[in-house]
Amino acid sequence: MLNPADDALAARLPKGVLRPITPAYLEEPRRRLTGQAGLVAAPRNVDEVAAIVRACAKARVGIVPRGGGTGLVWGQILPQGPAPLILSLERMTALRGLWPEENVLIAEAGMTLQAVRDAADAAGRLFPLSLASQGTAAIGGCLSTNAGGVTALRYGTARALCLGIEAVLPDGRVVHDLKRLRKDNTGYDLRDLLIGAEGTLGIITAVSLRLVVPPPNIGVAMLQVPGPEAALTLLSLAEGRMAGGVTAFELIAGQSLAFLAEVLPDIRQPLPGAPWSVLIEVGLPEGLPAAAALEGLLGDAMERGLVLGGVIAQSGQQAADFWHLREHIPEANRLIGAIASHDISLPLSEIAGFIRDAGAALAARGDMRVNCFGHLGDGNLHYNLFPARGRVRGDYDALRGDLSDLIHEMVVARGGSFSAEHGVGRLKTGELDRWGDPARLAAMRAIKTALDPLGIMNPGAVLSATAGQAAPADGPDRS
Amino acid sequence: MLNPADDALAARLPKGVLRPITPAYLEEPRRRLTGQAGLVAAPRNVDEVAAIVRACAKARVGIVPRGGGTGLVWGQILPQGPAPLILSLERMTALRGLWPEENVLIAEAGMTLQAVRDAADAAGRLFPLSLASQGTAAIGGCLSTNAGGVTALRYGTARALCLGIEAVLPDGRVVHDLKRLRKDNTGYDLRDLLIGAEGTLGIITAVSLRLVVPPPNIGVAMLQVPGPEAALTLLSLAEGRMAGGVTAFELIAGQSLAFLAEVLPDIRQPLPGAPWSVLIEVGLPEGLPAAAALEGLLGDAMERGLVLGGVIAQSGQQAADFWHLREHIPEANRLIGAIASHDISLPLSEIAGFIRDAGAALAARGDMRVNCFGHLGDGNLHYNLFPARGRVRGDYDALRGDLSDLIHEMVVARGGSFSAEHGVGRLKTGELDRWGDPARLAAMRAIKTALDPLGIMNPGAVLSATAGQAAPADGPDRS
User: Fold this and answer.
1) Are A449 and B450 inside 8 Å of each other by CB?
2) Residue B277 sits in which domain range?
3) Cα distance from B383 to chain A (closest Cα, Å)?
4) Do B416 and A446 touch (CB under 8 A)?
5) Is the Cβ pair B190, A244 closer than 8 Å?
6) Is residue A380 part of a domain?
7) Of B201, B446, B380, B286, which Cα lies nearest the Cα of A238?
8) Residue B46 lies in a domain
9) 8 Å CB contact of A462 and B187
10) Nearest by CB to A175, which of B347, B443, B451?
11) What is the rounded CA–CA span in Å between residue A353 and residue A358?
12) I need a surface site. Which of A166, A264, A322, B418 has the fewest CB within 10 A?
């Protein structure tokens, strides 16, 4: 149902871009919050995006850009305030070009990450960004949120894999900067500013991406370690031996395995009951078989007491099984039902101390289970709290906010971040206000005002609402 | 000699920061232009930097930040207009911390790149950024200009090696963001915005840097190739075999070798007279000797006709000799005396065509010598023009501007950049105005105005002077 203001705006849009609104446009993955309904526009090309942005500027209607909708911090939904226009990139899915000899691919923003990876693969190349949600996540959203995933240790986050962008600025101007260049020092880094801005400074409509030649020898192992500190020493040892060849280094807590055994018992566990284990993947040069390299590492590490045992995958299927286990930890978490989740990063040398101290502090607050796992090589942990056995999520409603504050305080005190890879969205604007560097926040607000003086681009995301903007609701959970 | 305005400003500065002005503060490396004299202030800490910036804002005096002074595009000198305050980072040279287990180092901006590299080395780590001028270049300047160098192929430019910054904004506020984190998605990427802004948005006073464990097996070879196209196919082959292990891939023209033979005859040449050659460095894992890997590559490449012959360094000394040759090409160029130099980048698949077409177009303009060499793996060439034998630089004065325009036009037409790694400074603002994307330029100006409304930060650099700012002189040469 359109209101009169919607009618006026709809009349100004390019023909054929409006789509019927469905609940899917108003959802976020954890279904804890629903967005405001409004117009849904799905442009077919960058000129239509620009026309929509200009029309919204004229009508003073906020724009919520939407890719695959897989973001976890409510950047893709506007729960309160005036109805926005939802700008879906779902029709801009073209592969604009692929240059295998340059290791470059240009994709439109609505292409899924999986489709980008498949296109690279078909040309004998690898686009290394890899996330659990890659079948749905749009590449434009991955860039807008600077997505991380399991290969950031080796290849960096999405930002490091982007050579150039095409984007529509809040005034409707189009930045044409889809360069296929590794080096270009001609002025301010507008690309990296729009990457990670979560749609608040403009809409990324296409991206030029860096590909790599897949490593000839790939190996995967799961290793039981005495604890997080030993895991980090093992990482350092592995990096020293592998010369940049460590692709992934994931920490898995005993609690992760216990949850998997409880709710996904069909998943095979190579190290059942291990209190701490690590999944390592290496990608090595011609002439160096991965199994031999991993055996060398394992021997060295066991001698030093860094590894208690382990399994080196003997086939591609076994390697895939190890990854299957790792990738189903979030699903097991969902089935158990978290009290609160935290996407944190820490300086590597602070991790072991944080895990120890946070565990002790939480134990003093009440009976609960902690599942601490994730991208240890990046210092990025998912530190999630669950009800004690026999209790339910609702039992902790009164505690939830305090628990998250406690975790975030301990993280920030050790020089860490309260959002390592998920972004700020609308869920964590309060945290950013509280813990962000004041001078940096002031500069962010100055940039926002300079580029989007009307405040129409994804209003209320990243920067908390100021006068004239509606504050988003405090949702029922912290992700 | 101070003028009355200087006196008033000087009185507002922190005690003891003023330094006597010497010609060194007004020079750029090629000595084609001299900066305006003004006050020179050398603060000892970030608070003094902030106090100086606030005093200059109050007095409306422009600030020219200065690191090692090695920039090649006049970003460090203000040749015209009101006398600036030269803010030298020469006293801020402390190593604030080094965490080998995290692969992180925090340095003050005035520390030289060599000192940073040495500090990492002493801890068994490598800071990979490597430039000919690293003994003088300050790390703050390297970041402010997003320096490139010979290892960007593997490790990225300076931007990719920086985890966090401390910086003074144009209003005197201090951004404290010296994070030791690989992942931190909490808002706009102010770090990457200040990196490469050449001091026009603020002054970087300290940086948190990413180190790596040095690869266990390092190998260097010089290989003669049939031409640039074969060199690029060789690069692709090498990257496929080495799994990210190619550290450097430098193109050397026959003209480079001829100049070296002419003016630096003591430098040993392993492939004398080779019309095109490549210097490749690899850094490989434990268990894979570099010489064996290079021999495997060489055999494969010779079979495919990509390499005509070559020498694999048999010792560290021989490897150092090969690099010695490569690093003295700029010195040979200086001794010969260029008509014009160009720091360009191109999509890799455009390079061979550009070299062919540009050579033909220049031949039609007159008799001259072309020295085309550089970081081929990054698509970054130094394409420099020299007088024909028996003629001198001055003979080409009338042609110079047209020649550079021709080169830059051909580069831009192929999707390339007129400044790959040196930046814009004051030398290339005209090129940026001409070839920069208009929407991107408008956004850059909006950001500049938002963060530096008084226009005091390195006035006239990057963005050409607008009303109220003095235009820098068109110097006698393009670098």
Assistant:
1) yes
2) 217-263+273-327
3) 15
4) no
5) no
6) yes
7) B286
8) no
9) yes
10) B443
11) 8
12) A264
Q: A52: which residues sit within 8 A by CB, 6+ positions away?
A: A13, A14, A17, A41, A43, A63, A85, A87
Q: Do A183 and B423 touch (CB under 8 A)?
A: no
Count residue pairs from A and B with Cβ separation < 8 A.
333
Q: Could you give the CA distance from residue A64 to residue A456 in angstroms, rounded to a whole number?
A: 9
Mean pLDDT by 10 residues, chain B (479 residues): 73 97 94 92 98 97 97 95 96 98 98 98 98 96 97 97 98 98 98 98 98 97 98 97 97 98 97 97 97 97 98 97 96 96 97 98 96 96 96 95 97 98 97 97 98 98 69 36
Q: Average model confidence (pLDDT) for chain A?
A: 95
Q: Is A450 part of any domain?
A: no
Look at strands A63-66 and A85-88 and give their pairing.
parallel
- How far from each other are the two terminal CA atoms of chain A, in whole angstroms? 32
- The 10s digit of each residue's pLDDT in A359-391 is 999 999 999 999 999 999 999 999 999 999 999
**Shared domain check, B145 and B201:** yes
Q: Which of B86, B92, B140 is nearest to B113 (CA)?
A: B140
Contacts of B157 in chain A (CB under 8 A): 183
**Would the CB atoms of B243 and A215 count as touching at under 8 Å?**
yes
Query: Which of B192, B423, B449 is the closest to A192 by Cβ?
Result: B192
> What's the CA gap between A86 and A63, in Å, rounded?
6
Tell whether the torsion through CA atoms of B152, B154, B160 and B161 is positive or negative.
Answer: negative
Q: Are residues A301 and A352 in the same domain?
A: no
Write out pLDDT tens, residues A187-234: 999 999 999 999 999 999 999 999 999 999 999 999 999 999 999 999
> 10 Å Cβ neighbour count for A273?
11
Structural domain includes residue B84: no
Contacts of A129 in chain B (CB under 8 A): none
Q: ipTM value, please give it.
A: 0.95
* Domain end call among B413, B435, B463: B413
CA distance B42 to chain A (A): 23
Contacts of A196 in chain B (CB under 8 A): 185, 187-189
Q: How many domains does chain B have?
A: 3
CATH number where A376 lies: 3.30.70.2740
Sheet holding B368-375, edge to edge: B309-312, B217-224, B276-284, B246-253, B368-375, B380-387, B343-345
Phi–psi pair at B297, nearest 5 degrees: -65, -45
Pairing of strands A217-224, A203-210: unpaired
As a whole number, mean pLDDT of residues A66-83 equals 95
pLDDT-based confidence at A72, cuts 50/70/90? very high
Structure token digits, residue A469:
């903007």
- Facing residue for B181 by CB, picked from A101, A345, A422: A345
Question: Which token pair is B403?
Answer: 């020649």
B contact test, residue of A182, A381, A412 with most B CBs within 10 A: A182
Residue A390, classed as helix, strand or coil, is coil
Chain A residues whose CB is inside 8 A of the B197 CB are 188-189
A160–B186 C-beta distance less than 8 A = no
A239: domain CATH number? Answer: 3.30.70.2190
Q: Which of A185, A232, A463 sits opposite B420 (nearest CB)?
A: A185
- Of all residues in chain A, the one with the smallest CA distance to B246 is A285
Query: What distance in Å separates residue A351's CA from the closest CA in chain B?
Result: 11
